[in-house]
TrEMBL record:
Protein name: Glutamyl-Q tRNA(Asp) synthetase
Gene3D superfamilies named in the record: HUPs
GO CC entries: cytosol
Pfam family, one: tRNA-synt_1c
Keywords: Aminoacyl-tRNA synthetase, ATP-binding, Ligase, Metal-binding, Nucleotide-binding, Protein biosynthesis, Zinc
């Protein structure tokens, strides 16, 4: 059965962009005769507060959305993420990195030309790739804080591609789209505080939940390149993808919780009815 999912991060209140994405997922799930799942992407222990999780669920219910099956919370899936991380590390495809963000930025600034990943962050210069096994073991034994990075060259040698993913539009036709995971470099796949990152968690969850269609914003199009590679390395099925246009504010910037975009809670407090909001976004 076709399976879709809406997967917000509870680090703030939902805004109109979230509402549009959730409603589009619901429309397409109904059109394809499939299921719609709700996943709470709460791997950030410092920002994913219980009250915000409850608010997300309440806002979606207010919109009139109904989801199939239990709500999946990423904070409860750490064993699955750790298992996939350990699988990559055991094959030499991931390595621990003891560099701080400031150290990575400083190393990038010393380079003749700063190369950046699709999110705009400096590409990792590979400092910790060259540590000896003994040095790594000693630093791990001392409990030094570290992330885990994907060894991109080894990953591409293991899964050389060509890398592609199946893209579909809202009417259903599909086509193969090229993917270029190399532009992410040795990206972080597990944070200091949890054994995963957004990228590793999302491919693990999509496979575990048998998600067949991923509908998300165009700002995550580049991430799909990396997700396709992780799926190949871990032997996971790759869903079909649709990346919808983003809602923009009056300045032309995308709506974002970090920018203080008007939330659904604000609109509800002003007396907006859910039917009117749905209609304003093109959903009757």
């Amino acid at each position: 059965m076709p399976t879709f999912r809406f997967a917000p991060s509870p680090n703030g209140r939902l805004h109109l962009g979230h509402a549009f994405s959730a409603l589009l997922n619901a429309r397409l799930a109904a059109r394809f005769g499939g299921r719609l799942l709700l996943r709470i992407e709460d791997i950030d222990p410092g920002r994913s507060r219980p009250d915000l999780i409850a608010a997300v669920i309440d806002d979606l219910a207010w919109l009139g959305l109904r989801f199939d099956g239990p709500v999946r919370r990423q904070s409860e899936q750490m064993d699955a993420y750790r298992a996939n991380l350990e699988s990559l590390a055991a094959r030499g495809l991931a390595y621990p990195c003891f560099c701080s963000r400031s150290e990575v930025a400083a190393a990038a600034n010393r380079a003749e030309a700063i190369r950046r990943d699709p999110d705009g962050a400096p590409l990792y210069p590979g400092t910790c790739r060259h540590l000896t096994e003994g040095a790594v073991a000693g630093r791990l034994a001392r409990g030094e804080p570290h992330t885990w990075r994907l060894a991109m060259d080894r990953a591409l040698a293991t899964a050389p591609g060509p890398h592609r993913f199946t893209a579909f539009d809202t009417q259903g036709p599909e086509h193969l789209a090229p993917a270029d995971p190399a532009r992410w470099g040795d990206t972080v796949i597990a944070r200091r505080d949890v054994p995963t990152s957004y990228h590793l968690a999302v491919v693990t969850d999509d496979a575990t939940q048998d998600v067949s269609h991923v509908v998300r914003g165009a700002d995550l199009l580049a991430a799909t390149d990396l997700h396709v590679l992780l799926q190949a390395l871990l032997g996971l099925a790759s869903p079909r993808y649709h990346h919808h246009s983003l809602l923009l504010d009056a300045t032309g910037a995308k709506l974002a919780k970090s920018r203080g975009s008007q939330s659904l809670a604000d609109l509800r407090a002003q007396g907006t009815e859910p039917q009117a909001l749905r209609a304003s976004l093109g959903f009757s």
